[in-house]
Design brief:
Layout lengths: L1 E4 L16 E2 L5 H14 L2 H13 L16 H17 L11 E6 L4 E6 L3 E2 H24 L1 H4 L3 H16 L2 H13 L5 E5 L2 E5 L1
Parallel strand pairs: 1-3
Antiparallel strand pairs: 2-7, 3-4, 5-6, 6-7
């Protein structure tokens, strides 16, 4: 895996598009941002509906003991969420994120980082890679909370997990939108990658 500081998108419009390359049609940037925000606001509703219905069907004694959750706890939860979100993307790269084609990109001035894969991967793997954080940091913690009473999980840690679910769900709108676009446009058994700065696929 490579480490890149302040990487810049590569685009050379003089290059001839290979015959086997088909570009993925994406919404305009502003529209894409709006749709991602809407998806990010809708996604967290689902796990909380599940938890609400589960608590109604299977009522149990509350573990609330009067303790308050400090406001600053949101910062470590945010950091944990961001790090593991990107890690779950990375480990589903071909080579499990260890190949030279995988990179960790950091933009210090923007206080931003992310992972990138320079190459093509099958659509099925791409979809798993893209949705892995939604499963690992939203779905699985929701299932864990449903069984939390068996472990007598303290109230503080229940709220910690709820914050994790909420933050990750809000940040997964773009992943969900991209997955829908790819699922609808790219045929099964095709490969997805980036060519000249644009998302594309090939048979």
């Amino acid at each position: 895996m490579k480490l890149r500081i302040n990487p810049k998108p590569h685009s050379d419009h003089s290059q001839v598009v290979p015959a086997d390359i088909q570009f993925i049609q994406q919404p305009q940037k502003r529209v894409g941002v709006i749709l991602s925000i809407i998806a990010g606001l809708i996604i967290p509703v689902v796990p909380f509906i599940i938890l609400t219905v589960e608590s109604y069907l299977f009522p149990r004694r509350s573990t609330y003991n009067g303790e308050s959750i400090p406001w600053w706890i949101i910062f470590p939860v945010l950091i944990i969420c961001i790090v593991f979100h990107e890690l779950l993307h990375l480990i589903w790269h071909p080579g499990w994120g260890l190949s030279e084609q995988s990179s960790l990109n950091i933009w210090p001035k923007k206080v931003q980082f992310g992972v990138h894969y320079d190459g093509f991967m099958y659509r099925s793997r791409w979809l798993v890679m893209r949705l892995a954080p939604l499963v690992g940091l939203t779905l699985l913690p929701t299932i864990f909370l449903m069984a939390a009473h068996f472990f007598r999980l303290p109230y503080f840690w229940q709220q910690f997990v709820i914050l994790l679910i909420l933050i990750n769900s809000l940040g997964s709108g773009g992943d969900f939108l991209a997955s829908v676009i790819v699922y609808r446009q790219v045929p099964a058994h095709s490969e997805i990658g980036i060519w000249n700065g644009r998302a594309c696929w090939r048979a």
